[in-house]
Amino acid sequence: MTFNWPISIYYEDTDAGGVVYHSNYLNFFERARTEWLKSLAINQTELLKQDIAFVVKHADIDFRIAARFEQSLSVRSTLTQLKKASMVFHQQLIDEQDNVYCEASITVACIALSKMRPKGIPQSIVQEFNRAR
User: Fold this and answer.
1) Which of 17, 32, 101, 130 could in theory staple to 75 by disulfide, Cβ–Cβ 3.0 to 4.6 A?
2) Rounded CA separation 111/120 (Å)
3) Signal peptide location in the record (predicted)?
4) 15, 51, 60, 62: which is the annotated catalytic residue?
């Protein structure tokens, strides 16, 4: 199960040398996961109203090639594990030739926001991801 989302590198994403600042790769990956949920008609605002939130629990990131100002790239996201209260995504920032600029394994936990404690992923979300497989 894979989802692709285009990313344009803006000046604000870079340092003085025009190279993407390291923490912005995590922003790109976050945006891609959010867009994936939106494409599955999963509304995060509605989830928040139900005291449900997704938080990054762990990130293992590998910087390979420096992305630069004005590049057009893509984030390829793959759901590799779907557990009761967490999901693991493998994400890559790639160009049109599939060169990998950065890749990460991101564990996202589902929590009851008011308690900041783990909570089972709603069945409707599990069904959407399973249907997308």
Assistant:
1) 32
2) 8
3) none
4) 15
